[in-house]
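Input:
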Amino acid sequence: MSTPLQVYEPFKAGLPKLGRYWKSLWSRRTFIAEHSKSELREQHFDTAFGQFWLVINPLLLSGVYFILIVIIGGKTDTTRYVHLTGTLFLFYLVSNSLSSGVKAVTSGQRLILNTAFPRIMLPLSSVVIALFKFFPTIIVFIVIKAVVGSSFSIEMLWAIPILLITTLLALGLAITISCINVYFRDMASFLPYMTRTLLYLSPILYEASTLKPGLRILEYVNPLFPILDSWSRALVYGQNPELSSMLAGLGWAAGIFFIGTYIFLSREREFAVRL
Amino acid sequence: MSSLSVSNSHKTKEIAVSVRDVSLTYSTTIDRRPTFKTRVKALARGKKQTRVVQALRNVNLDVEYGHVLGVIGANGAGKSSLMRCIAGILPPSQGRIEVYGSVSTLLALGVGFNPSMSGRTNVYLGGLAAGMSREEINGHFDEIASFSELGDAIDAPMRTYSSGMFARLAFSVAATVRPDILIIDEALSTGDAKFKEKSLNRVKELRSDDRALILVSHAMQTLRETCNDVVWLDKGKVISRGEPNQVIDAYQEFLQVGKSAAIDEDV
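Output:
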């Protein structure tokens, strides 16, 4: 068997060799899964009560927001509640990826200082955890939809590509914010305000079609706007999402993922001296 | 980032690690916890926010298969930085490092462990973090459990372990990895005297013709007994390299501690 040769030389900036990096990341997939599972077990999501809390927490939140909508907006209907619940669950996928991802690198200090591995594994693991938390909420959403008598249709399958786009966006955001937090540790303190603002600027408490013309700019500046609008059209109303919304969502997700990954990969070799 | 599960056959005297003219300089923040707030404050006051650390200076070093190289030096001499460069954790600022084979690092114990999980789960977490596959860990699990002497406590959460129990399990996992090149940094000074001896014996077992070992330690007697060569680092520079007794004697003379019984007996 030939001896594997590793050469370590100075780097100025830029990306590592991507083929080798990907191979190394792929060889660590079992560790990513085990690491994510252990984090979930630590938060008791392997127990019945843990699973219950996982579902009841966003459900209670959606109830609170629904009351808010009724008080502020007056009369409302069950479809509005289905929209609120469905979009809130998807929003939580992104929000959980961010809250877990922000400290992914800084809390992995011991691993980073003592083992050579692709550092991107850490924010990736945060998104895997957020996905594990998201999947049970899909079942709850389907139950709610059935209970309120909302119809099911083939167009609902659009949810699959929309979920893939959302995961790409969540990954891009988690990678970017985990890297920023190495240099500015108070990023974690700002994050709750940022996610709360993002929640209000997204079509969750309201529907995209009801937005005032003066606020239409939100469709273009908020990456989650076209994604949540498409999600609601497909899952709540059983309609085909608009192509322009799908493309805008994909564009945002791919853009944030590639820029964030570039920044992360070009900086990750100095994380060991920054932690 | 090579896989540890691949072990290649090497001949004694073949080069395992070649370090050529390596320097490591990096800038790090003055604040231990850099924040946006402190950055803005420092900018407003015109204060420096980073400091430059020169950890290694023109280091040249070869490690051959079949050899055990000891690394000594005072705190801050650059020993751990050099090990991190060889392991690919830190890229050098100058020079070139060639590593011919799979590397495993034992720079700290319990890397990848989650204290909330049981010892059993942590055997898998630690092993996977060290680059082993699940199948390899399955195959070695009984050996790890037996070496750690934890008995039924292996199924208890690790947060309930004493520091000695934690160290025993962590060393047992780490010592199971069978790489071509093994770097051990201060990891032998764990557990009680009996376990220290057991760990040292395991390291001696790991010496073989087709493996290279690099041992960083302040335990001089261990290095005298175990190593073929010792290199002495000071302020990032190689001061001397050669036969263990000669280099260690010179280092101890430099430290003006002579043959301290305390140092000799610490394994």
